[in-house]
Amino acid sequence: MIELQTSYITETGRRQRNEDACGYWSSEQGSCWVVSDGAGGHGSGDKASKLVVSAVLGKFSAAPVVNEDMVISLLEAAHTAVMDEKRANPQGDDMHATVAIVLIDPQTQSAVWGHVGDSRVYLFRQRVLAHQTRDHSLVQGMIDAGYGDSEMIRTHPQRSLLTSAIGNSGELALSVSGSPVVIQEGDAFLMCTDGWWEYVDEKTMEGLLQNAETAEEWLQLMAVKVKESENDKSDNYTAMGIQAGDLEPVTTVILVK
């Protein structure tokens, strides 16, 4: 059974309240990690993200199964929880949220993940980016359609407009990783909200991971970059790191002339 280590950082940034939420639940049968970024006025954004985390962890802990169907079920449960709250309070704000989920079976060393919105899941193998989720956003759709390059994702003025979110009316568009992926010793997952990845690009993530001995140290190094980029409009930011066993050792080669 592979050992799993968890680290997380969640900060308010320059906002009045932290509308991000995160959490995890672990057992020998399976483990679940979830990150959510809420939106809405008068505190309904933080309520939405907390509802998402509670719904996901509550449902998974009752039946800790790691497969694609479970990810879909958890995403749908999060959506139902927020929609139920909105129906119970029709005079409230139009709250909604993003969500990113990772499930790992420590016995089979397999992982699945899924998301709605622009909170992301990254998988790094041998300290190199192996996978990242694609946002459900207007700008990502423009890039996919050939109307711009990947640099737009962090600079476009409409980069925060989502095409799918937990709590939105209409059909829920969600993404899942598919069949379980066998994880290896040294694999590292990063789950984060847009307030994090907007200021730490993928090359920087890789570069800082090269200099880290643990996922916790990696998060701290990235957090420095986020703080350095803070301005008066800086969003909340949240990141969770999941480390499978020990990170691959860093090898330094010294060339002697």
UniProtKB/TrEMBL annotation:
It comes from the Bacteria. InterPro entries: PPM-type-like_dom_sf, PPM-type_phosphatase-like_dom. SUPFAM superfamilies: PP2C-like (SSF81606). Residues 5-257 form the PPM-type phosphatase domain. This is Protein phosphatase 2C domain-containing protein.
